[in-house]
Amino acid sequence: MCGECEACRRTEDCGHCDFCRDMKKFGGPNKIRQKCRLRQCQLRARESYKYFPSSLSPVTPSESLPRPRRPLPTQQQPQPSQKLGRMREDEGTVASSIVKDLPEATATPEPLSDEDLPLDPDLYQDFCTAAFDDHGLPWMSDQEESPFLDPALRKRAVKVKHVKRREKKSEKKKEERYKRHRQKQKHKDKWKHPERADVKDPASLPQCLGPGCVRPAQPGSKYCSDDCGMKLAANRIYEILPQRIQQWQQSPCIAEEHGKKLLERIRREQQGARTRLQEMERRFHELEAIIARAKQQAVREDEESNEGDSDDTDLQIFCVSCGHPINPRVALRHMERCYAKYESQTSFGSMYPTRIEGATRLFCDVYNPQSKTYCKRLQVLCPEHSRDPKVPADEVCGCPLVRDVFELTGEFCRLPKRQCNRHYCWEKLRRAEVDLERVRVWYKLDELFEQERNVRTAMTNRAGLLALMLHQTIQHDPLTTDLRSSADR
């Protein structure tokens, strides 16, 4: 393309010529596959018309005659090189005749319309075949790939060409895959069976590294036998270990001192946790004694003890579990039951039961045969495996009364347990509070035991055989053997 003519400068298709109507974007079948006539380079068209002077004369429908078809492939066709040579010989005469007959061809032609262009398909096919073959374009280099007369043959040729390319690519991929497989297999065989290459040449085998051994080593090993390897390892230990032990004893180890300090701190925390556990056990027994003494109180029903229960009857609060509005008088009772209902829908289990010496009434530990686990809720709070006992009509509430929230008065609530809405399930909540604190202390003790075990294991391995053989600390100051800094001394 020249880039200077009007057709080359045009950027949009006209949408009205036969080539545009064949395009897919204008609703055509896309069989011709040519660009718009108004966008075809005029300079290139003039160069192509040099070889077809007869086609430059206007053709009208009345003057158009049926053109002879191209000969069949069986007939003898002139070679492209012969035709090209013949055309080049007559190039001068043809060009001069074109200039004499049509002087306006050298000027820039007007844009063509559909009425001015001949629509003879045979003329178009002959023009395309001759123009493309004579210019030697790369996509038309083979005579078998240019059957423009029949679209079916052209499509078939394109398909055959693509199939051939796919077959060539698949064959190349298979060859490359086979080569890579062979290389990998050779590499694996070399490492898995090194004796295959070494057995052929015994002189290439290295000498055994055992002390005083002159025999060749086994393939894939540094020694001729296991005894030579054990002897060399023993000699290394006897030679290196005494010196390392002497160095270890002469210079104090900072990590060892840190470990001792850490052990002392862990022991102090363990002692504090045991003291806390004893205190919680004492509170546990005190609570049981208070509950037993409260049950011995006599029931007393009077208006003064029940004052305040009838106030604010129109006031409503919302349950924290279900969100329903409830009366403040029965709020504690409703929330406790609602919480137990939702809590029983979830299970907390472990594969092993809890065994703690000296501990009573901690976990539920009810075995579930379906999940094969033991329940790990607190025994007093487990809604799944325990229910509140039925309260008799003459049982007293017995909750210890307090002053200023925390100060005990020494008196007990003597209302009937069924009617008391202020102290609902107070025994269960007090027991759960003590049991939860006991569980926390036991977890703290277990964590401290694990820390102590890790520190002792590190201190034991620090002066072991393997550590002394693999690690060595060098003191570069000849005046002292103490490796600690001035701040740690």
Write the layout of secondary structure elements.
Layout (H helix, E strand, L loop, with lengths): L5 H4 L8 H5 L19 H8 L30 H10 L1 H11 L19 H15 L15 H42 L2 H6 L25 H25 L3 H41 L22 E2 L6 E2 L4 H13 L5 E2 L16 E2 L4 E3 L24 E4 L3 E6 L13 H37 L2 H6 L19
Main β-sheet, in a few words? 3 strands, antiparallel
What percent of residues are in strands? under 5%
Secondary structural class: mainly alpha
Which regions are unreliable across 5 or more consecutive residues at pLDDT < 50? 54-115, 127-149
Structure description:
- The relative contact order is 0.06.
- The protein is mostly helical and 489 residues long.
- It has 13 helices and 7 strands.
- The chain has a 3-stranded antiparallel beta sheet with strand order 3-5-4, with no helix packed on it.
- The protein has helices spanning 6-9, 18-22, 42-49, 80-89, 91-101, 121-135, 151-192, 195-200, 226-250, 254-294, 331-343, 426-462, 465-470, and strands at 317-318, 325-326, 349-350, 367-368, 373-375, 400-403, 407-412.
- Among the domains are: 6-55 and 79-149, no CATH class; 255-299 and 344-466, no CATH class.
- Residues 54-115 and 127-149 have low confidence and may be disordered.
- It comes from Phyllostomus discolor (pale spear-nosed bat).
- One of its GO terms (biological process) is positive regulation of DNA-templated transcription.
- Residues 158-167, 179-191 have a biased composition (Basic residues).
- Residues 72-82 have a biased composition (Low complexity).
